[in-house]
Amino acid sequence: MQGTLRGWMGLRTEDIRKLWRMLPIFYFSGIAESLNYTAFMALFNQRFGVQYLPYIYIFEAAIMPLEGWLLAKLASRLPKARMMTTLYLIMIGLLAVNGAVLLGFKAGGVDFRFYYPILFISSNFVIRQLTLLLWSTAFDLCPTQQAKRLMPTFIASTTTGGITAGLLASLLGRWLGTEAVYALAPVLMVAGFLFFRKAIARYLVPLTLKEEGRLQAGASSASELEESSGYYLKNILQSPFLLCAVALMTLMPAIYFMMEYQYFTAAEARFPREGDLTSFYGLITAIQFSVCLLLQTVSTRLMNWLGASNILLGIGIIFLGGFTLTALFMNESMGLPVVSGSYAMFYILLYYIAEPCYQLFFKMMPMSKRDGYRYFAQGVAASGGILIGSLLSLLHSSGLVALSPLAWVGVVVGGVLVIVAWFGRHLYIKELVKSVQGLHADLSEVASSFIGGMRSSKALSGMLGYLKHPNDYVRELALEVIGQAKDSAFLPHLISMIAEESSRIRIAVLRAMNLQGATIQDLVQVASFLEDEDPDVRAECVKLISRAAHLKSQSHFFIRVKLLDNHPKVVHEVVKALHALESEESYQACDEAIIKMLDSGGEWAVYGCHTVADLKLTQYAAWVLSLLDEQRPAVKVAAAHCIGKLQYIEALPQLLEIVPMADQELKRVILGALVDMGDKALPGLFANMQQENPYRWNVVVTALAELLDEGRLRTVLIDGCVERLQASSKERALPGALRALGLDALADLAKERCQELHEALIGGAWAVMAKLVDERIVQTLREAIQDESEEIRENGLEVLAEGLGDRRLAYALLDQLKQGTSAGGETTQEPHLLVQEAEGWSDSWLREIAMHARSERERGDMREDRKFLTMLDKVIFLKQVSLFADLSVDELGLIAGIATEEIHEDLTYLVRRGEPNSAMYLIIEGHVELSNATGQGETATIGVLGPKQAVGETTALDGSPSAVTAQVIFDEVRVLTLQGESLSRLVRLYPEIGIGLLHASSARVRLLENMLLTMS
């Protein structure tokens, strides 16, 4: 049952764990909030007078800025976790004090009329802040994607709490009185706080280890926000779109508060007894939240279908209709049911539907100013909405108009709201186009969310006007929004864009097309894209035509011809399309195409692997496995990915075998492949749990952590992880042994390699820990433990020492981390014997270092006779080059693998000024002169480079012309040569290399500047 529920809701193991801790918070707080609201409203309306409600709201609107300022001050002085618990305790205290006063009034038979405005203000503060605290807790404790998955469940828990509160209020109000209803609220808040405190300690405290620095940054940001309030006001006043957004955000709460006044006034007139009134409020609350719970089941689907713009327009129409019904029936017998139903619906629509829609208005704002616009607009709208609603309600409370005429005023305001919502849809499109440059990737999704999927939408049809816009970004966005509508009515407009010059636009045109209902003539026109010069366009056209199921034979005819295309991406899409069309007569030709791709190597083999993976063609699994021996890294990566998708378990040993020498990308893909194999891989992974090599062990336990549920993870995996972490190892003693033998360079390299192996071991343990706690928490904790500040490091270790996730694993990990900060392992074993033993260790680099150390001792003084460098010699040399000083031994090995040793004679030009250069030279021995031409046509020396310096690093990556000339001087020079194409891939995988090149380029620029200053 639980598994079925998890599958239906799309929940994961970490979601279930977090739900058990957080759902009680939302449930108990939902009950407390509704009990509080029901009770204090009944008490205020009965004992002070509902006619004074507008005055209280006006007073609240006036003090809300002060309230926000005080809370901001509190937040600036306290860490986030403490701020949240302090605010929760303040709210419990306010409710407890009020409850005690009310029970004291009842027990003593006394009353103090002017206490109830204080009760109203303090209780309404709890309503506002508790709602904000609950949603901020959900987003702070959950990563963004997890929050999206869990938010419906949190809302359902809160609404269930509201239903429970309604039933409790209905019963308790009638039998025990309204005071008992109110006094129950702080009791339930305390119950929620027990879970709240544990959730904060478990999920938020580890994320706020650097809170002090953030507090200072927050204070700076707050001062900037204060100074720039005039900036936001000015820009809002100048923007019709933002004015429309603020108007919507103001009018909706204004109408709600007017309806709330109608509801409370009508209910008080019908139920003069306080207990009956409280019971009625409770009944309406229960019905209200029951409807809300039902609405949540379809709200997401409704939002995707209608879009936020139509949702807001629909809410405006419902508000207008609700007030129209209220105005018509207020003086009739159906008046109270109509006004109660309208109030309940207004509440749900405003707080649970409209609020999320508002956020889309600010998605077009620049990221750096988005929050400023949002907070400023929400502050203005909240105060403005309360003031407008309260001032209009004063017309009745002051005796100027009756309730029914006041309802007609609400009808007028509702009409204004509908007009504003209607124009807002069109202003949104214009603002979208203005904001498109630089934000296209985000805005296309936001546009569809706001406009929705209604094919008849006038706003969507308005996008056609932008298909001729001179800006390619605007046209691409319009095409993407049109494509998301999946409306074949746009096909003629899109076919007319076949001749577009930009290949990006042609691809966007194809993606926007819907061939459902297309004629043969339409298909022929679309098929002209199959001869496009750009292979990406041809591939996109193949995908589109394959979806024309009603013209299957014609589609098959056009697509099959492209099996002979000269680009592998097109052939890849053709094979997939023919299989999607179930063209069995073409399967043999498809097999021949796949064999050709796999056999051709290089890019063809990469797409061949993708084809086999996408179509799950298990008959090619053995062939794909053989591609793991390819020299080109991209082919290895594609083959490993394909093996995982095919769930080819026989490849598991070979995948693990290549892990230690794999680069980052290949390691990541191998891990993904093991996870893709699913439960089939479990026996093989368990069999490799005792891997001596830390890199293989890391991949094995990380894959197991992904595949096992939490129960099996705790019972099966934890013990193995703890044993592996606690196992003694002699690796850390090797650097000391090498240093004792006088091999300092090898000792430094061995020390770094031991640290990398240690980190790989710890990384596997962290991966398991992340599945027991939360990936964000583990990431933050790892960063804190490596922080420069000793205090932050100690705080991180302290969190771990409290038994985070699993106490046994946390303690074992803590011991390893403390070892990592120590000087290193020591041994009483004689250095020569330890080095000899290291030649049989599991790590290839430590074995290589040990064998190199032995050969060094055996060669003695004959070392100078050796001319060319071994692989390890290259690694040792690269470690001493400033460009690569911060790289790991594995990364240095990858560079050494693409580096070729060359000798150039005296006066040889390595690089000439103005000529393209695609290689970087690292000087091993010798000197190179850098020179440049002066303004008088003479040659001036910039400088002379020696060993461990680089030449050509500024142009190697892009093959651009060199700005300087580099010539060998003072006899021959020995260099390591790195070709730009191979170096570019390493820079993509290891940004540290790129940073080193950037530093080298900066140093070269400073040399040129100094030369120019000297010449001047």
TrEMBL record:
<dbReference type="InterPro" id="IPR018490">
    <property type="entry name" value="cNMP-bd_dom_sf"/>
</dbReference>
<feature type="transmembrane region" description="Helical">
    <location>
        <begin position="21"/>
        <end position="43"/>
    </location>
</feature>
<dbReference type="InterPro" id="IPR050503">
    <property type="entry name" value="cAMP-dep_PK_reg_su-like"/>
</dbReference>
<feature type="transmembrane region" description="Helical">
    <location>
        <begin position="87"/>
        <end position="108"/>
    </location>
</feature>
<feature type="domain" description="Cyclic nucleotide-binding">
    <location>
        <begin position="883"/>
        <end position="987"/>
    </location>
</feature>
<feature type="transmembrane region" description="Helical">
    <location>
        <begin position="114"/>
        <end position="138"/>
    </location>
</feature>
<keyword id="KW-0472">Membrane</keyword>
<keyword id="KW-1133">Transmembrane helix</keyword>
<dbReference type="GO" id="GO:0005952">
    <property type="term" value="C:cAMP-dependent protein kinase complex"/>
</dbReference>
<feature type="transmembrane region" description="Helical">
    <location>
        <begin position="150"/>
        <end position="169"/>
    </location>
</feature>
<keyword id="KW-0010">Activator</keyword>
<feature type="transmembrane region" description="Helical">
    <location>
        <begin position="241"/>
        <end position="259"/>
    </location>
</feature>
<feature type="transmembrane region" description="Helical">
    <location>
        <begin position="279"/>
        <end position="298"/>
    </location>
</feature>
<dbReference type="InterPro" id="IPR036259">
    <property type="entry name" value="MFS_trans_sf"/>
</dbReference>
<feature type="transmembrane region" description="Helical">
    <location>
        <begin position="175"/>
        <end position="196"/>
    </location>
</feature>
<dbReference type="InterPro" id="IPR000595">
    <property type="entry name" value="cNMP-bd_dom"/>
</dbReference>
<feature type="transmembrane region" description="Helical">
    <location>
        <begin position="336"/>
        <end position="354"/>
    </location>
</feature>
<dbReference type="GO" id="GO:0005829">
    <property type="term" value="C:cytosol"/>
</dbReference>
<keyword id="KW-0812">Transmembrane</keyword>
<feature type="transmembrane region" description="Helical">
    <location>
        <begin position="310"/>
        <end position="330"/>
    </location>
</feature>
<dbReference type="InterPro" id="IPR014710">
    <property type="entry name" value="RmlC-like_jellyroll"/>
</dbReference>
<dbReference type="Pfam" id="PF13646">
    <property type="entry name" value="HEAT_2"/>
</dbReference>
<protein>
    <submittedName>
        <fullName>Cyclic nucleotide-binding domain-containing protein</fullName>
    </submittedName>
</protein>
<feature type="transmembrane region" description="Helical">
    <location>
        <begin position="375"/>
        <end position="394"/>
    </location>
</feature>
<feature type="transmembrane region" description="Helical">
    <location>
        <begin position="55"/>
        <end position="75"/>
    </location>
</feature>
<dbReference type="InterPro" id="IPR016024">
    <property type="entry name" value="ARM-type_fold"/>
</dbReference>
<feature type="transmembrane region" description="Helical">
    <location>
        <begin position="406"/>
        <end position="424"/>
    </location>
</feature>
<dbReference type="Pfam" id="PF00027">
    <property type="entry name" value="cNMP_binding"/>
</dbReference>
<dbReference type="InterPro" id="IPR011989">
    <property type="entry name" value="ARM-like"/>
</dbReference>
